[in-house]
Amino acid sequence: MRSSEARAEAVARELLTIRGWKDARPPKGNVLWKNEYRDYPHLLDAMVGRGKQGLGGDAYPDFIVMSPDGYSPVIVGETKASESDIDLASHEAADLYGEAFLDKGWNVLAAGIAGDESSNIAVRIQKRARSEWKPIEYRSQPIQWIPTPAETTQLLADEHLFDLRPQVPSNEVLAKHGDAINRILRECGVTDAQRPAITGAIMLALWHSAGQIRTDPSHILKDINDECEQAFVTAGKSDLAGSIHIPEANDKLAARARYICYILRLLNITTLTAEHDYLGQLYESFFRFTGGNTIGQFFTPRHITQFAADICSVGRSDVVVDPTCGTGGFLIAALNRMMEGRSFTRDELGNLVRDHLMGFESEPITAALCVANMILRGDGTTGVVRGDCFTHPDYPESRATIVLGNPPFPHRKTDMPPERFVDRGLDALTTRGELTMVVPGSLLVKGDKRRWRENTLKRHTLRAVITFPADLFQPYASSTTAMVVLRKGLPHDAQTETLFCRIENDGFRVKKNVRVEQPGSQILIALDAYRKGLSIPGFCATARLSDYSTVEWSPGAYIGFEKHGAEKIKDESFLLVRNLAAFHALYAPELAEFRRLLETDDGPTPEPYHRKTSGGLKLKFYGENTIGNLFNVVYGQGQLENKENLAPGKWPIISSAGTDNGCYGFFDFEGIAPLIKPPFVTVPRTGSIGEAFVQLWPCGVTSDCLLLLPRPGTDLEDLFIAASTIRLERWRFNYGRKITPTRIVDIELRRDDDLKSWIRSQRMAADGLMKDSLRLLSDNGGDSLRDKVKALAVAWRRETSHLSSIERKTAHRAYQEIIALGKPAVPFVLEEMKAHGGHWFWALHFMTGANPIEEGDNVETARSKWLRWGIANGFLLTDEQM
After folding, report:
1. In 320-334, which positions are buried (b, 16+ CB within 10 angstroms) versus exposed (e)?
2. How sure is the predictor about 140, in pLDDT bands with cuts at 50, 70 and 90?
3. Which of 537, 551, 531 shows the shortest CA–CA distance to 485?
4. Distance CA 570, CA 202 (A)
């Protein structure tokens, strides 16, 4: 294949992948390249005699995209190396190959693609009308992208459909190309803080010039700067143009900027006819993966800005202000709502933006990016002001009807506290205007913010508090955040119903450090609950606030406890049992010695723990199956508060650690505090808050934990159920709202006989493993341990070879016994995996706490990564060392 053809084919591959097609032949993918369709006789038959020369030769399209079943063609494509050859590529794709498939009864799209990474890229997608091939268009212009699988199905199913609206690529695609641009900029010596501005400048220049910039190193950077500056001047924002200027003396960047342009062209940034929301969404999403946080900005996800605009029911008559607008996400969300239901001319859109949207941003680069964002949507005459919302003379006091925003979270004591931004937002509102802001969770609960919460309720109405998942701002930050909704100028009435809601699933999850879509979003459920005043156990509740001086704003204080399903309790209980087994394996020598010490005549005697409960808990009547009725809930031993000062010893201490069953280590605290007689549950109040464990050994417990001491009639299975339930409810608690006895005693436990029987069976199986751990790991040598692993592995392979379920294989007795052997057995498990393979990944993860593999790795890749990990960490010898 000639190099020019290879480059053109690479462009086609990228365009297909960006739009969701799998670049592999069926059944693993959707695409047949070059001569791959020779293995498909029905396709080959269609191409007989349809050659380009018209002399009876056979046709050879560059690629064919197949239907999901891998049988029928849906797109046939031809590529050319030069953009000027797009007419030829389109002709061959449609009039030769497309017609050939139509003659055989297959309705297909014809794709012509011309250009490579060194030039512009032209795309033309056609569909057969009754008498001719017609291009697929968007707003009367040919689309410049390959349709997605869903769009292709839609186009082929509707003979009258020739218009297609652009869709933004997935977060995974944006992350991939964002990483590529980041890598180029880093290698060219561009600092983190400069990268968003440079990327924004290239995007704006390509859009403004429709891609017509010179890409040779001697001209490309100057052309980008000129086009970018002209775009700002045209929009009346020349004062901001210099904020995103590219240093033209960077020779490395001049040489590689062409490839950045190529990436952006693949993402369709040059399409002049693209609608405002598409380009803006691409722009904002892309910056999440090109170092956008390096200028102190954490861009609010689009679905959250839209949720805020929906909460406030933004309409065309509203005046919306964002005191800290960043790149304009909330303003755009408000604009989207204003535009719903009708089309606007460019002048009408300009008037709408100018008269109804206003934003302030003190950081020059971010302010320029915000204006660029508006320009990409077709309007730059926006009310975005480069300035501080606290000091700028144009700040609109008492003029706005709605305030939206996500002010910067403080990272240092000298940073502006978030409540100051809330107050400043309220300053902009008219009476009865509404404010919706994203704030840190600490503002809802911390004691030093109580006076502010009290004063706010005396002057304004709290309409709602809605918390979000902790990973909302990943990959840049992980923290508890909430949306606060306030109505200005109306003191909070004691009869007002405020919605408190916890969104656990916002429609996204973290995968390989990128948030990707997932089903089950609760956003619309929360919006419906807000509008209708609904209460849903475990999700949301309406509540009346009376005592403003002590009131909490945390949803965890108001949402009713959920009676969790048996399967959820089983999952958590299984985790607790595994933690116990791993704890015994990890500390087998210490526990064996501790047991011998307990059995001696002069050994320590564990004592029942008699610390008094606080807050008059004993006087309250609790429901039959509540924690308060089944347990005495008390604080840990204050004598062990400063555990760091204790000398190493032979007595275990449980603290707020989230691993090793909560064990902090073994210490000498004889005469300082007694050993507490088991069994009981420990619940961390700090550190790993709420990650409860069941304790079966005498131990000391620091005051960082609560203890659940079983009352008469409470059985051992109840301890696992209680610990599991607290783990499922730990979202309610944090450093600002710690776990206390009064906050958990009313939690109702599921105590079904079937559930208890299942927990008992798991616990009894674990008892054998724990006993084996103490026996094997306290009195055997390395050779006998190797033999033990080998024997168990042979039994495991033999007795599970017929199983296809990994879950059933890893639940096998022999597999679990190997896990119970703990870290000393890791070298022998690695030897076993190296020699015989097998799915030992789960066991190794649990035995070591490490996890070198990533989601999506196949078995062989995962095996290789674990073996490399074993060599790097001294558990396995290399072939040269053996």
Report:
1. bbbbbbbbbbbbbbb
2. confident
3. 531
4. 53
